[in-house]
């Protein structure tokens, strides 16, 4: 493990083995086609399965990729699990010892990526690794700039274990973001884009707040050519969800920033309506 200038710690295949059958010395020096970034916090139980399924799917489609795990200093064995997997797969880890949060973790991973095509996905296996090649292909071929693993297009689905409240919460959050993008699933955390789009989003004031970094990059990166690939969204394979009230409040703040950037008139109108609703509610307590 080494510490970088920005204070992050990194573990890679190079630090755990001089060479392996899966990654020869020539491959180590060659930039991959795709960089896949996975933010983690206490995902030791999921990372090995994710790795196996992901690299099997990539190998079947002859896609050369690296996996970058960005971990918020887990104490459950995630870091050790990645170090062991690095003996067999092109995987490395960035351990953040002070900063926290999913969106900022993805940004850190994208900045460290060696490829020009970038993928973001969750570690909990809610995003099917077998669909990564379908997201990557149209982007690498230059057909589009942003591809989403979508829950809301023909052929997609959500695991039946989702309760009514969770479905309602997701639908409301999606509806609030719809004016900002043409994507039917703007909340998707499973997406593929290019380094050029990411760099443009950074230039336009990318704000890694909350957990909907895909929406942030799509809006600030001004993507025009998009596509949605149907996926079957599953509940996490192991562990517990990190989504709570704090993350939902951060999402509302993120939306306010994006509306101010993309549709300032809509933000003003929405603020007036919101204040009017609050005023109406207040009448019952006066």
Number of domains: 1
What would you say the CATH architecture is? Alpha-Beta Complex
Radius of gyration: 20 Å
Main sheet record: 9 strands, mixed
Please give the alpha-carbon distance between the first and last residues.
61 Å
The number of helical segments is: 11
- Label the structural class: alpha/beta
Number of strands: 11
How is the CATH topology named?
Spore Coat Polysaccharide Biosynthesis Protein SpsA, Chain A
Overall morphology: globular
β content, as a range?
15-25%
Task: Describe this protein's structure.
The chain is of the alpha/beta class and 286 residues long. The protein is built from eleven helices and eleven strands. The strands form two sheets. It has a nine-stranded mixed sheet. The longest helix has 19 residues, at 264-282. The termini are far apart. The model is unreliable at 12-27 and 272-278 (pLDDT under 50).
